[in-house]
Design a protein that fits this description.
The structure is a single chain. By secondary structure, the protein is of the alpha+beta class. It folds into 3 domains: 33 residues, no CATH class; 109 residues; 127 residues, Glucose Permease (Domain IIA) (Distorted Sandwich), CATH 2.70.70.10. Strands 5, 6, 7, 8, 9, 10, 11, 12 and 13 form a 9-stranded antiparallel β-sheet that branches. Strands 1-2 form a two-stranded antiparallel ribbon. Helix 2 packs parallel to helix 3. It starts with a strand and ends in an 8-residue tail after the last helix.
Length: 320
């Protein structure tokens, strides 16, 4: 049954009874409830968006510190990338300058994938993108370091080959302290045949028994020179080089022996077609006999070389 309420009627100056229906009461209750909920939602929204809790403040500070660390790491990676690029450039220059070859395609240069990012506040998506960039940079550096390590291994092998090659070049005089060539490379008169013929080496006069030394590292060959050369030592040095030592009185090495530059290999003699004790010395490059004088550069002064070169140019009679 609806409740009754009294209200004062100013026209009649009396209290009159008013009937309040259930529907009116329900409307008032709903209106009160909606108003209360709206106010509560407004308060929650204000608290959520404009007022941070102590926990949120701590998390925000930690996030800012983490973003700063990420940015510093990104800059360090960029510096490492630049340093690695410079190292690869120097590496390539070593290949070209020292070994006279181009660096392998396996160690080609890699440009930086990303530039250093600017510092400043970042959104969540920007932080994720930065982490992806850093991950890509790190992978790139790992690959390039692996390739550079491979390059250095190759460089070490080339260096060893270069050392072996240099040791295989006949670069010293076969008789110590010799400063004169008695008969040089080129056309000379044969002392026995009395004809002008190609002299394929140099004749160095010396007393019988004078030690003869290997001009470079190599292996003593089984074969020798022509029959007119008498007792001969032929050394295969590798890298297309050979040297021949003829008219010896005695050998100091046997075929197959590996010798070092400056090692004793025999003694000056007068065997074969020869008119006196001397060493006939030849340098053979790619199967072609060349002027040995041009290979005297490792144990000689400029003055000594000039004297040898001058004496070698005289067109005279050879000793063999």
């Amino acid at each position: 049954m609806p409740k009754r309420h009294l209200f004062f009627n100013p026209k009649t100056l009396s209290f009159e009874k008013v009937k309040v229906s259930f529907k009116d009461m329900l409307k008032k209750a709903l209106w009160f409830l909606i108003t209360t909920l709206s106010f509560a939602i407004l308060i929650i929204w204000l608290l959520f968006y404009f007022i941070n809790s102590p926990r949120e403040k701590i998390l925000e500070r930690e996030n800012n510190e983490l973003r700063g660390e990420i940015e510093r790491l990104d800059k360090k990676l960029s510096v490492m990338n630049s340093a690695l690029k410079e190292l690869q450039t120097k590496d390539a220059n070593v290949y070209r300058a020292i070994f006279e070859i181009n660096p392998s395609e396996a160690i080609k240069q890699y440009d930086l994938l990303y530039d250093a990012t600017a510092a400043g506040p970042r959104t969540h998506n920007e932080a994720i993108q930065l982490l992806e960039n850093i991950n890509s940079k790190t992978n790139n550096i790992i690959v390039r370091i692996a390739l550079e390590s491979q390059s250095l291994d190759t460089l070490a092998q080339l260096a060893k080959r270069k050392v072996d090659m240099l040791a295989s070049v006949p670069a010293i005089r076969p008789i110590k302290n010799m400063t004169q060539i008695n008969s040089g490379f080129g056309y000379r008169y044969h002392p026995i045949l009395k004809t002008l013929r190609m002299h394929t080496g140099v004749d160095i006069a010396a007393e019988r028994g004078t030690p003869v030394y290997a001009a470079a590292d190599g292996v003593v060959a089984n074969e020798g020179g022509t029959s007119g050369y008498g007792i001969v030592v032929l050394i295969n040095h590798g890298y297309s080089y050979q040297t021949l030592y003829a008219h010896l009185s005695k050998k100091a090495v046997n075929p197959g022996k590996r010798v070092k530059r400056g090692e004793l290999i025999g003694y000056v003699g007068n065997t074969g077609l020869s008119v006196g004790p001397h060493l006939h010395y030849e340098v053979i490059k790619n199967g072609i006999k060349v002027n040995p004088v041009h290979y005297f550069f490792n144990d000689i002064t400029p003055a000594e070389y000039d004297a040898i070169l001058k004496s070698s140019k005289q067109v005279n009679q050879s000793l063999s």
